[in-house]
Amino acid sequence: MVNSSLTVMAKPRTRSQVHEEASTDSEPAALEPPSPRDMKELVDSIVQELTESEKFKSILSSCIDKAISRKITQLTQEVVKHESRLFDLAKEMDSKTSQLLSLNDAFLHLQLEVNQYKNRTNELDQFSRRDNLRIFGIRERENEDHRVGPKYSPSGTTTRQRSILVKFKNHTVRDSYIKNRRKLKGTPTVIKEDLTRFNQQLLQQARDNKFTENAWSIDGKVFALVKTTGGGSVVKAY
């Protein structure tokens, strides 16, 4: 008869089960990541240690000084470069200005010579007319050859009577007609000096001036009676 108090023997384990149990017992527990607060405290601690370190301060100051020095050197080189360029531009501008002034002087001189030439040419042209007079207001007839200006054409565009050009033998006879022309006042006939185109324009400009009371010519020279600011009048030569 079998004794019921005998201990039941455990079932033997296989090799793979033993190996799995051993592997499970040897795995370390997983670490939790640090919280943001812990990270901040760690960083603050490191920063505090660095800022309180004289060696770190010295290294940081040295790095800043070197960076500033390099930047100042770079900026100084750029300033010198730009100053050199500005100096070259200033020299070039001075040269161009000198050339422009020289050209302007040459132009003014040339303009003066041209004006002098025009005036001299006008004077010679006017002198060649000193014995001439022009008579206006006499009815034009066909086939006249002593008229000046565009030919009269009643049916065309030119309806104004052309003036008669009279050339006298000497200046004295011519002046006698000038002195007596006032006798023709009130008639259609008018006697004028034979002026150059330039002097005709000059006389017209004098007459068109709002301060001019009267304008006339004597021996080809234009004169005008001009009002003054004081209420009087003066004779002005053009």
Kindly describe this structure.
The chain has helices spanning 15-26, 36-51, 54-127, 171-180, 197-208, and strands at residues 132-136, 147-148, 163-167, 190-193, 212-218, 221-227, 233-237. It has five helices and seven strands; from the N terminus they run αααβββαβαβββ. A four-stranded antiparallel beta sheet has the order 2-3-1-4, with helices on one face. The chain has 238 residues and is an alpha+beta fold.
Termini distance?
A: 170 Å
Biggest pleated-sheet summary: 4 strands, antiparallel
Helix content: 40-55%
What is the topology, as strand order, of the major beta sheet?
Answer: 2-3-1-4
Radius of gyration: 58 Å
Low-confidence stretches: 1-10
Strand-residue proportion = 5-15%
User: Total strand count, please?
Assistant: 7
Globally, the shape reads: rod-shaped
SSE series: HHHEEEHEHEEE
- Count every helix, treating DSSP H or I runs of 4 or more residues as helices: 5
The average pLDDT is: 84
- SS-based class: alpha+beta
What would a concise description of this structure say?
The protein is of the alpha+beta class.
